[in-house]
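Fold it.
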Amino acid sequence: MSDRSGEDGYRLYREAIRRRVCAICLDGADNGACGLQGPPLCAIDEHLPRLVEAILDVRSRQDDAYAAAVEAKVCSHCSHRDGLGLCRLRRDGRCTVSIYLPLVVEAIDEVEQRA
């Protein structure tokens, strides 16, 4: 996650949005510029900091949701759990599912997007 302090902190987000969204936006001018220069302003530009923060907030909470779902559906069947149901590998920081969960989520998303 990049540093977002100040207006310039959102520059990379703005550039990425311009490449992906503005390039196909129906309000765009033929030269690639935004056609919404006066009222009404583009809602993305107007609310960019709050938009980025809201998306990142949901995304971070989804990681917790992913972790809870994996714990319920995968960890409950793990052979590395002790008699109390605690995972030795996770306790020692060696559980590959726990460590690499964000990358697993990205890989699954990639496959789903291709389908």
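The mean pLDDT is 80.
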